[in-house]
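Priority: medium. Attachment 1 of 2:
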């Protein structure tokens, strides 16, 4: 009968275990770092100081319009309704409209709105999940109207 004896725990084994444990932690952190950097652009404006110089004035002008924007999605079409302070429908000049995921830019889609019976309508296919409409429009008097509207597309399966 052969009796097996346990091998002693040497300094080299402890070093190998420690290096392997820290290697796993480092690999996981690096994977998360590259996933975060590759999925979110993080840039709102090129120069925040320049943008801040007219922020209060632009915000007050937009608030004076009294406009409210709402967005809805039905399969194949996105509907934007902009109303004034009295609840009447407004048709602003859309200068930019982009629908995207809140966390990354790979699914961004530029929208082309056209007047419809229930608001401004744009054809678009959106997968289920959270989306944002980043809207830039202009009032007839030249006032800029900027909105970021959240939208959730339900899973219809």
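Attachment 2 of 2:
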């Amino acid at each position: 009968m052969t009796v097996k004896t346990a091998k002693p725990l040497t300094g080299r084994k402890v070093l190998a275990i420690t290096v392997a444990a820290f290697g796993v932690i480092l690999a996981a952190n690096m994977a998360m770092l590259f996933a975060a950097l590759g999925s979110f652009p993080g840039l709102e404006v090129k120069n925040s100081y320049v943008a801040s110089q007219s922020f209060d004035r632009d915000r007050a002008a937009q608030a004076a319009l009294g406009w409210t924007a709402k967005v809805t999605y039905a399969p194949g079409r996105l509907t934007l309704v902009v109303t004034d302070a009295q609840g009447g429908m407004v048709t602003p000049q859309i200068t930019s409209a982009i629908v995207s995921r809140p966390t990354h830019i790979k699914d961004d889609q530029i929208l082309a709105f056209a007047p419809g019976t229930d608001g401004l309508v744009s054809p678009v296919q959106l997968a289920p999940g959270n989306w944002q409409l980043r809207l830039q429009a202009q009032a007839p008097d030249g006032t800029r109207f900027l909105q970021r509207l959240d939208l959730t597309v339900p899973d219809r399966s």
